[in-house]
Amino acid sequence: MDNEARKHSGCWNIALTVLLTGLLVLPALSEAISASWVQFRPDDGWFWVDRDAVTQRGDLTYFKVAHSRESGASPDRAGSYFDTDDPHHEQAYNCASGRHFAWKARSNTGASDEYVWTEDTDAWNARARSMTMETICGAAAAAAVQARKQNCYWPDVNAASSDRNVHYGWARTREAPELKSNLGRKLGQLFDCVARNAGQLADTFAELSLVVARYVPNVSCFKGDYGVISNDWSLHRRWASQRNRDGMRQGAESKMLAAVDCLDRSRHSDYFADLSLIMGRAGRP
């Protein structure tokens, strides 16, 4: 082979080497670009969120996660696990309310058939939830959730008012369908509010239940359910404590709205104001 041929052959070898090297490093670069690192717990490694795995299904935004023991190194290369198809690595946010859901073990055995999809309310990883929510839902949604920690009805300032006259004045010019719609909306916002825990919501449920029982002590309005018209705060509180957020909200909404239809129109504004005052106070920390 003459010198000219050797020169061309050498160039092709260099080009081929560069091309192959590029192909080998592309997945690593893509992996780094398509995911975000946030610290989960200082004593338990780092939390990996794959933004390419984000999907929207109904009200929830799902995403895949994993852990590593090194800062800034992908989990599959850090001596830990990166099996994103494993069910307990899938998590989800309701980007409107900030509620967080995950596959969690029923026990410490870690058996895959003992994992259940449940709401994650652990206080110790609140910082991690706040950071990952901005990654998954966007800064605007995360900021809105932060605002709702000060007012569960944000940006509706009047809904959180502790002034009964504000609620009464609004209700005076409204008909029953609008009153029911307003009560239902506020209930949804309150029981979705991440600033309120289950115990606080159970207390609020009991207080609302007493208002219903006081205004409508007629069991026929509630399909013969004598529990609804009880004036025993502890009975209502105990019922609520046995249910999750959605169960409490549904129970409160059912009887609060049914009572509107059983009340004389002249009492609607007072009834609405008493319920709204309780919800307004409960909606602020």
Task: Furnish the topology, listing elements before pairings.
Blueprint: H1 3-33, E1 35-38, E2 46-57, E3 60-68, E4 90-93, E5 100-105, E6 115-119, H2 126-137, H3 139-148, H4 164-171, H5 176-192, H6 198-215, H7 233-241, H8 245-262, H9 268-282
Antiparallel strand pairs: 1-2, 2-3, 3-4, 4-5, 5-6
Morphology call: elongated
- The poorly predicted ranges are 5-35, 77-88
Query: What is the percentage of strand-forming residues?
Result: 5-15%
Strand order of the largest sheet: 1-2-3-4-5-6
Helix tally?
Answer: 9
Quaternary state reads single chain
> How confident is the prediction overall: mean pLDDT?
77
Major sheet characteristics: 6 strands, antiparallel
Q: How many separate domains make up the residues?
A: 3
Termini separation comes to 84 Å
Structural class: alpha+beta
Instruction: Write down the secondary-structure element order.
Output: HEEEEEEHHHHHHHH
| Beta-strand segment tally | 6
Please provide a written account of the structure.
- It is a single chain.
- α5 runs parallel beside α9.
- About 15% of the residues have low confidence.
- The protein folds into 3 domains: 33 residues; 103 residues, no CATH class; 125 residues, no CATH class.
- Helix content is 48%, strand content 14%.
- The protein is of the alpha+beta class.
- It is elongated.
- The relative contact order is 0.09.
- A hairpin with a 2-residue loop joins β2 and β3.
- It has a 6-stranded antiparallel beta sheet with strand order 1-2-3-4-5-6.
- The chain is built from 9 helices and 6 strands.
